[in-house]
Structure formats: C-alpha cells, structure tokens
Specification:
alpha/beta; five-stranded mixed β-barrel
C-alpha cells in the first residue's frame, strides 16, 4: 500500500465506485495507525472562499469508521480533493507529552467537527471509555442513552437480549444493541452526579455520536405535577458548577430542537402527561438542606424539575457539537411533602421503567427514519463555521 492516497470525485463514476474509494481510505487510515503513525487527512474544498484547506490527524479510526465513511463520502460528493498520509509517530500512552497535546486550554473549539479532537485526546479518551464501561469503543452505536439506574439496563436487556455487555465489573457499565453502520443504541449507567456525567460525555464525544439523551429521574417542583409525570427539558439552570470554568455561564444551552420534537411526538402518541421547561441541575444531592437558597434560584430560573446530570451532559453536548436532549420522569416532590423515600421510590421505579426507555427509543427511531445520516447540525455550529454544503 502506498504511503499517500489522493482521492477526488474524478476517480469514480457511480455510487459503487465511490463507496469502494471511501472504504479504501478508511482501510488505509487504520493500517497507518496500526503501523505506529497517526493518519492525517488534508481536504481541499474549492467551494470555500475563506477556508479552502482543512486538515487534521486521527487515532483509532476503526472505532468510529462509520463516521469517517459518512464525512469523507459527503466531502467527495461535494467535490473535495482529499490527501491521506502518515503524519507522525503515535505518542505512547505513558509519555508525559500525551496530555500536552490533549490540553483543552489549547483547544480550538471552532475547529471543524471532523478534526475537533487531537489524536492524543482520542487515544486517551477511548482507552478510558473502555476502562469505565467494560466495552470496546467500536461497540458504541450512534445513539447513546445515559441512565442512573440498573432497572433501565434490565429493560434494555429484555428488549435486546443479544446486546453486547460489559466483560467485567466496571464503574459505568455500557450495553450495546448493535446494528449495521452503528445505527443501533448504546445505554450507559453513568451513576449519580455531574462529575460522572462530565467524565462519560468527555470520552463518548470523540466517537462523534449522532445523539446523546439523558434518561433520568427528577424532583418535580411545580404544584401541578404528579409522581410519574415526564419532563422534557427546553433549557438548563447550570447549578452543577462542573463546567463553569470551561464554558461561561452566560452561554445559552438548549437541547436539540428536532430531538425534542420527536420526544414530544412520542409522549403525545402514548397520551402521557408531561411538561416542557427548564431543568435545574445541582451537584448537591441534599440540596433541600439549603432549601431557602435553592428555592430562590429555582424561582428565578422558573425551573420545573431538579436533577444532577442533565445540564452537565447538555453543556458537553454543546461544547463537542453532539445533538442532545433530556427526558426525565418525576420520582418525588420534595417541596410538596413527597420526598424520595425508599418504599415509594421502589414502587415508582417498577411502574415507570419500561415506558421511560420505550419513549426515548421510539423517539430515536423517528429521528433515524427522518434523518438517516444524522440530525441537521446548523444549530450546533459557530457563526464562522458554516455547514459543509453552504457558502464560506
């Protein structure tokens, strides 16, 4: 195999030849990586007046081959010229330089999504992803669900008895319903709290998933909510504090509109009771112990539910340009004399677990049917980063 591959739309005359060219490019990237170098892509886009050349290095390209195939194919169909070659020797995982080259303080958040992460960051994140979840990065599917509860894992395994499971006891076990081209679902039990939510979304993001959905429980904050009602987040009060030093609080974080549309349609299909609004995310599980201060913030933000993960996942989805949404189920009403107590909580869990997961999976099936190659992403790109097909 040559050490350099140059491809363009002049080299194919039909869909079959185009697909083979893309497969060859992905094969070469994987071969370069396995032989000890980072593969580098240089893309010349004649339609871009101000930014005609984009480039970046890859690591573990086999883990997200589906994504590379999709993006390279779209670039070629648009008329791009692509050059692929070995860039530099891979940095060993125990080399102190690894983290110098993965430092987010040096990170260009406006970088094209294809080249958003350095290869060192990809290497360390996918290594840690396998460590935390007990499953291989290539087992992850395009649509990733996060939960806090084993009961959702049980429902997922009932739905997909042949799903890939962790190979050992781990901190955040993952389960994967695998479909061709990674169009299935992955479910990760991330545990409780914003720190875990940041950890998992930091690492999952390098796989460039098509959607992240938080499937969690919450405390209902409004008079006219009942245990078992659903909450579809339209905004987030970031009281978790986890990402405040990384992304300023004055940046608005809103879920993906189309994901919310599909979730709302599914809730309506099942005639379920739900409310749309702001979710208040806190790092303090016992926030009721500082009730006066917390309630003041809740009132100002007009929040209708409180949880410990949603805003964190949403903020990282924004940072890494992954479409995200949150569907919560009211498990308690601590401000209305219905705190989460063991007996009542167990009854609620048993009654809600199957429907909760089914709503999200049905909504994602809608998304897949309407957007087979991923959700429109104009809402998660910067003003100086137009869509691939738009004027630049």
């Amino acid at each position: 195999m040559s050490k350099k591959l140059e491809i363009s739309n002049k080299q194919y005359s039909g869909e079959t030849e185009l697909n083979q060219i893309v497969e060859n490019a992905c094969d070469m990237m994987e071969k370069i990586y396995l032989e000890g170098d980072y593969p580098k892509l240089m893309v010349k886009r004649s339609w871009s007046e101000h930014n005609p050349i984009i480039a970046g290095e890859m690591a573990l390209p086999g883990a997200y081959r589906w994504y590379l195939k999709r993006e390279i194919k779209k670039l070629l169909e648009k008329g791009a010229e692509i050059t692929l070659f070995p860039s530099r020797p891979r940095v060993e995982m125990n080399d102190p330089v690894l983290f110098d080259n993965a430092d987010e303080d040096e990170w260009d958040i406006t970088q094209k999504k294809l080249f958003l992460f350095s290869p060192e960051r990809i290497d360390i994140s996918l290594n840690r992803l396998e460590h935390y979840t007990g499953t291989k990065p290539e087992d992850f599917q395009r649509y990733i669900l996060f939960t806090n509860y084993d009961m959702h894992i049980e429902v997922f395994q009932d739905l997909y008895p042949d799903c890939i499971k962790p190979d050992r006891s781990v901190q955040m076990p993952a389960y994967h319903h695998k479909l061709p081209d990674n169009k299935g679902f992955s479910l990760v039990n991330i545990g409780v709290g914003p720190s875990n939510a940041k950890t998992i979304s930091d690492h999952v993001a390098v796989l460039r998933p098509d959607a992240l959905v938080m499937v969690g429980h919450c405390g209902g904050l409004r008079n006219h909510q009942e245990i078992g009602d659903f909450v579809l987040a339209t905004g987030f009060m970031r009281e978790d504090k986890i990402l405040d030093d990384i992304l300023p609080l004055n940046i608005p974080i809103t879920p993906n509109h189309m994901l919310n549309v599909y979730l709302k349609e599914t809730l309506d299909k099942y005639s379920l009771t739900y409310r749309l609004g702001t979710v208040y995310t806190t790092a303090n599980r016992n926030w009721e112990f500082i009730k006066k201060r917390a309630v003041e913030q809740i009132h100002i933000s007009r929040s209708l539910a409180v949880d410990m993960e949603s805003a964190t996942v949403a903020t990282n989805g924004y940072r890494y340009r992954v479409p995200f949404a949150t569907l919560l189920c009211v498990s308690d009403k601590p401000l209305h004399g219905k705190p989460k107590l063991s007996g009542a909580a167990q009854t609620f869990y048993e009654n809600s677990k199957e429907m909760h997961l089914k709503i999200v999976i049905d909504a994602l099936e809608l998304s897949k049917a309407n957007n087979p190659e991923g959700l429109p992403n104009s809402s998660i790109r910067a003003i100086n980063e137009p869509l691939m097909g738009g004027p630049e």
